[in-house]
Specification:
Chains A, B: Keywords: Cytoplasm, Methyltransferase, rRNA processing, S-adenosyl-L-methionine, Transferase. The structure is a homodimer. By secondary structure, chain A is α/β, with parallel strands linked by helices. Chain A folds into two domains: 62 residues, Hypothetical PUA domain-like, domain 1 (Ribosomal Protein L25, Chain P); 157 residues, Alpha/beta knot (3-Layer(aba) Sandwich), CATH 3.40.1280.10. Helices cover 30% and strands 24% of the residues of chain A. In chain A, strands 5, 6, 7, 8, 9, 10 and 11 form a seven-stranded parallel β-sheet that branches. In chain A, strands 1-2-3-4 form a four-stranded mixed β-sheet, with no helix packed on it. In chain A, 41% of the residues are buried. Chains A and B meet through helix 2 and helix 7 of A and helix 2 and helix 7 of B.
């Protein structure tokens, strides 16, 4: 199965996918392809014009996946070593995640982040794990500006500070919610940031007894919010 | 804090750590170091001879961590791209894992595995996450030989086949156990292997609704077996 990604409601592949389809895979007019829009739709289609810059197709059939009855938004500071964020995105897409937001904390080491490469990783992971949704990736903002974007009703903040929060995310989160989880940067949150988050409704939680790297903590939060939904 | 690893009950660093301590960090006689043995002991020590080939130290004080009241053994086929297993080991050590075993399945693509590099990654992750245990890493065996080494009482096998097992690892595992979890290779288990595992007491379980890569599945099993122990 040749799987392509076209987020727009048009019947031609992106320039990159057109090149890949026609030049690399040598697909021809009449060949069958599958195109996902990353919003839950997966089209069975046939190539109508095998143009390496703008490969046209016609949709024959569309399978629509409904979104999960809960949503996970993980909010994280970019790690110094970007591989770690890239890895997190791949894994989070495999597990299912709706949105990833980035912020620069007082103790963040990295102060620049390009989304383009991260979006490619998200799309590749979506294809590989046979899913139909690609998460929203938000441009990095200052912590204060980021907080203004939070509309989720279930808000949690996980951090490393010495006084461990008495409750885990596992017990604090109710099923079926819209979750926003703040994960501390490598240098952890400042006290001021924690105070600021708590003042807009974020609850302090722990992700377990161990000290976790930023990206491991972020993935652990996804796992926990997934498993509390399971009824089997 | 300068943290070193010496698994043997001796009061000198390994050759590699000696070089690192004396040449790279330029530690001198009289300097304080911390040495963990990977079996739960963490020694506060002082350097008595700053020799770059065999740095001697004297233990002043030892902190002992008791093992967890449960144990997790993940049994996995080496992935084609070894980075993925390396990544899994780093993350599993952060989360806490007692043992990782490797087997060659009928559908495994990789047929050779050197443990030396994996052991280094495990030790580095143990140091980084401030833990005192390094997991046992077993040499890769054939699937049949591997099965003979299983002594754990709670045995689970996670695989991708079309008929999803009706029960998740979350619900099937009882707390406080000694767990062995078999994770399917990239080409999944063969029917014969699944049958063989079931015949020695492995229970079929699912790790959730999504199709996961081998290393993501392995880490998901660790996460699930951790969270079922949490009482907070």
């Amino acid at each position: 199965m040749h799987l392509f990604y076209q987020p727009e409601p048009v019947q031609h592949l992106t320039e990159e996918d057109s090149r890949h389809a026609v030049r690399t895979l040598r697909l021809k007019t009449g060949d069958s392809i599958t195109v996902t829009d990353g919003h839950g739709n997966r089209h069975s289609a046939v190539i109508t014009q095998a143009d390496a810059r703008r490969c046209q197709f016609r949709i024959r059939d569309t399978q629509t996946t409904v979104p999960r009855p809960f949503s996970i938004r993980i909010c994280v500071a970019p790690t110094k070593n970007l591989d770690r964020i890239e890895w997190f995105i791949e894994k989070a897409v495999e597990l299912g995640i709706e949105r990833i937001s980035f912020f620069y904390g007082q103790h963040s080491e990295r102060r620049a982040l390009k989304l383009e490469r991260l979006e490619k990783i998200a799309v590749a992971a979506m294809k590989q794990s046979l899913q139909s949704f690609v998460p929203i990736l938000d441009e990095a903002l200052s912590f204060t500006d980021f907080l203004k974007t939070v509309s989720e009703d279930q808000r949690f903040i996980a951090h490393l500070s010495d006084q461990k929060p008495p409750v885990s995310l596992l017990k604090a989160a109710a099923t079926g919610g819209r979750y926003a989880v703040l994960i501390g940067p490598e240098g952890d949150f400042s006290d001021a940031e924690i105070h600021q988050a708590v003042s807009v409704g974020f609850q302090l939680v722990t992700l377990g007894p161990n000290r976790l790297r930023t990206e491991t903590a972020a993935l652990t939060a996804c796992q926990i919010l997934n498993v509390i939904q399971w009824e089997y």
